[in-house]
Specification:
The protein is α+β, with helices and mostly antiparallel strands and about 70 residues long. The protein is about 45% helix and about 25% strand. Helix 1 runs antiparallel to helix 2. The radius of gyration is 11 Å and the shape is globular.
Amino acid sequence: MKEKVEAVLNQVRPALIADGGNVELVDITPDNIVKVRLQGHCGNCPMAMMTLEMGIKKAIQEALPEIKDVVAV
């Protein structure tokens, strides 16, 4: 599962990197909750939660419907 999530994150990373940020996969819980850490400019951007919800979470759940949630840690 970790490899599949990383593959999706690799698809969204270029947009994050272009804005001076990135995303790190921290963990996947046994109940399919993905934990990520926003880095760089994305870590303290006022739009970070929108990026997480509308970008990262949406991409992961579209590719991997078994993922129940994506949260920032």
